[in-house]
UniProtKB/TrEMBL annotation, chain A:
Gene3D superfamilies linked to this entry: VC0802-like
Native organism taxonomy: Bacteria, Pseudomonadati, Bacteroidota, Bacteroidia, Bacteroidales
Domain ACT: 71-141
Protein name: Amino acid-binding protein
From TrEMBL, chain B:
The species this protein was found in: Bacteroides acidifaciens
Entry protein name: Phenylacetate-coenzyme A ligase
Domain of life assignment: Bacteria
Family the UniProt entry places it in: Belongs to the phenylacetyl-CoA ligase family.
Keyword RNA-binding included in the entry's annotation: no
UniProt GO molecular function: nucleotide binding; phenylacetate-CoA ligase activity
Start and end residues of each AMP-dependent synthetase/ligase domain: 82-284
Function text: Catalyzes the activation of phenylacetic acid (PA) to phenylacetyl-CoA (PA-CoA).
Amino acid sequence: MVAKQLSIFLENKSGRLTEVTEVLAKENVNLSALCIAENADFGILRGIVSDPDRAYKALKDKHFAVNVTDVVGISCPNVPGALAKVLAFLSDEGVFIEYMYSFANNNIANVVIRPSNLDKCIEVLKEKKVDLLAASDLYKL
Amino acid sequence: MIWNESIECMDRESLRKIQSIRLRKIVDYVYHNTPFYRKKMQEMGITPDDINSIDDIVKLPFTTKHDLRDNYPFGLCAVPMSQIVRIHASSGTTGKPTVVGYTRKDLSSWAECISRAFTAYGASRSDIFQVSYGYGLFTGGLGAHAGAENIGASVIPMSSGNTEKQITLMHDFGSTVLCSTPSYALYLADAIKDSGLPREEFKLKMGAFGAEPWTENMRHEIEEKLGIKAYDIYGLSEIAGPGVGYECECQHGTHLNEDHYFPEIIDPNTLQPVESGQTGELVFTHLTKEGMPLLRYRTRDLTALHYDKCSCGRTLVRMDRILGRSDDMLIIRGVNVFPTQIESVILEMAEFEPHYLLIVGRENNTDTMELQVEVRSEFYSDEINKMLALKKKLAGRLQSVIGLGVNVKLVEPRSIERSVGKARRVIDNRKI
């Protein structure tokens, strides 16, 4: 339901992303989902990893600007209109989406949502019987 | 041409006599009207009676920008506010500006000095001055304005910025003299070229450039691009503003108006006078000022003075180009910026680490500042908007404190070098 997402502030310098992934590799931490938002000066990497606490500590030790944010993971059928339906539930109830990213795997699409209001988001999704992903499932993907 | 030949070309012997008389008078005046100086002199065990000639100036106490700050705003004024007719201010070492008060007579001596400058450039009552220095607390705009009016020229009080309008009026009004910072002159030159207006439709023939350090190369570039003669005008608000010194047609150093502002060169470490012609820190003593006379004010500008007669006929001392500063003040687009001002802004915001690096550059002839700063770990967000808001908040605060736009660059933790000794906070990449 609620999963821990790591976010890392990175300057736009070549090699920085490699260093992040190398730190994770060394700790034997797997990345199950990842996206990067960027602007002219910097980027913010957001990712779901197999062991958030371990990854957080390892990155922190290397002085990365890493933070943990609660996000919501859902899964829906990988068919046209499925996501539209879920998003309509949220917007109807006034839940805004700061950002989201998703990845499809055969018949299933997994979506990571960072809502403006976490509790409200979960409440709405539960009520509408949307398939919420347990954190442990997300980390294992 | 020479505005005041009897002074500007006076033999040095007679000039020294005038300086001696004026120094005795001003020392007596501040002793009785400025408690700050009376106290300082008493502490040093000297009285006005110890000052007999200009050579005795070395007995007098120095004044620094810190003294101005400590006596903010009007503590160093020697007259009641009823006699102050103008107040100017420039950036101080911390948040508080450096304030200067002028009496009516001070404004008139200042205008006299600027008139000498403009006349030396060859300007006269038949010229049209476009004053593109900022009007306001900065002395550039109103100073150049008063000087140009004093020689009977027509003045366009344009102020800085609004380049498109500058060009239109320069073209339509037929401005013949431009007063601006040298970097703005170069910017204007490029903008004129881009405007597509043919050079021969402009009447511009000379420019009075100052308020920031510039080089011979910049002079050549301005002269070539604008097709004019470019002259240096030197000044600082604590002493008067533009017109403390000026170049003549020989462009062989900047003549200082030493009948009003007496210059010395000292070793900034020992505070002892250096030998004539040697480089050191420039120090000024007001010889005629009423509002806020300063004794031996340390400008922090590094230069040398030459006393031999100039081929223009003037005997007023000539100053070399300013070679640098003995403190860490930066002059950015004509504005004084101290790294401590930037530091104080960062320190008062909980979102940032106290480590920063200021990178000064020059792009398209305009000074640029990039401030690299680390965010405190708890303030790094997963949202771009929040990070951009942090950036904007700091930039806005800096703008209000130093009056200039700063390009804030958020950097990763620990990416700014920590040093055990004196940290390197500023990198100046300008070729000046």
